[in-house]
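Here we describe the complex-level prediction in full. Unlike the single-chain runs in Section 2.1, the two entities below were treated as one system.
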Amino acid sequence: MSVDSRFTHKIWNEVELSKMVEGGIPFPMLSDQGGRIGTVYGVYDEAAGVNIRGRFLIDPDGVIQAMEVLTAPVGRNPEELIRQIRAYQHVRETGEATPSGWTPGAKTLKPGPDLVGKVWEVWQPE
Amino acid sequence: MPEVDSCVQAAAGPLIEEAAVPDRVPLTGKEKQKMTVARVGKQASDFETSAYVAGEGFKNIKLSNYRGQWVVICFYPGDFTFV
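The structure predicted for the assembly as a whole is:
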């Protein structure tokens, strides 16, 4: 989502993005002209008149589970986004907690009185 | 929404409970906060806006229509920028 119109989105997708991603961007390109939605999400830069790089992960109940906001010159890491989606989906399905850097199949934690002070026994950073 | 896809088409934008956006009455601090703060663990503010969808053309997208699915919203500074 950016402050560009849906017309600009179409041409950008056709003349440039489709040359980097086969078939073009496979999801809706949303228009936020005036930055009204960005304002509500806290990512609209009034001085520049654009939305800054904000990413929000929303669960099936409509609750924001994760957010990341970057200034313009540094791009995002899609692999980390996908890792977070998998982790949140796992948490939602199992009620377990996923430690730092967790990927599917790796050790999870079951928080409770017995685990206090003993995380080191069951989990170590890689 | 109108059937004709003209150049100027008002999208609904943020869909905030009416009580939170009283017409011409200055917002209280609490109401402003309700409008502008996105927080983890809190409900994402609903919105409806126009979009381009490859293969489908122009359509309106409403966040709350995606209930039941995982959704990622990515804001970025602009089309034809570099990063």
